[in-house]
Amino acid sequence: DLETLARFIQAYKEGAVNDLRELAGLAQAKLHKIFEEMVHHVIHKGVAIEIKKPLFDKEGEPLRDDAGKMVFNIGYEKNPLIKDLPAFVQSMGFSAIDQDMTPRTRQESETLKGYLDDKTIDQASMIDLKKKIRSELEQMRKAMEKIEVEKKLAENE
Known about the structure:
Blueprint: H1 2-14, H2 21-45, E1 48-54, E2 72-78, H3 80-91, H4 103-117, H5 123-156
């Protein structure tokens, strides 16, 4: 999808990652749909799935019963999604902990929210800090240029 590609490129170019919120939401919705299908499959098929393997005679021909139907050896294996589902849930952030739905995470979230509510950002001090950092970076750039010049002069001697 060229439009999606262009939106990603533009967002990263401009450093405007918030412009990708809609796409991130869509991706999360698609992953949730996959998760629902995995759960539905486990519920529908069960934790064990039936595996039918045809039986063959000595000549390699399939065995047939009196009615002419193929004879199968029926076995059961653990549904592979049982193993994959928890890892998928955790990696996609669908777990109760990730969704802030356990008593502990709720308490931690409320504590952090209360702590952050008390913190205000002084815009003037932020501007001063940015200016200071910019100045220090400029001084560092000049020092590095001076080192490069000195290095070249030393090589030419």
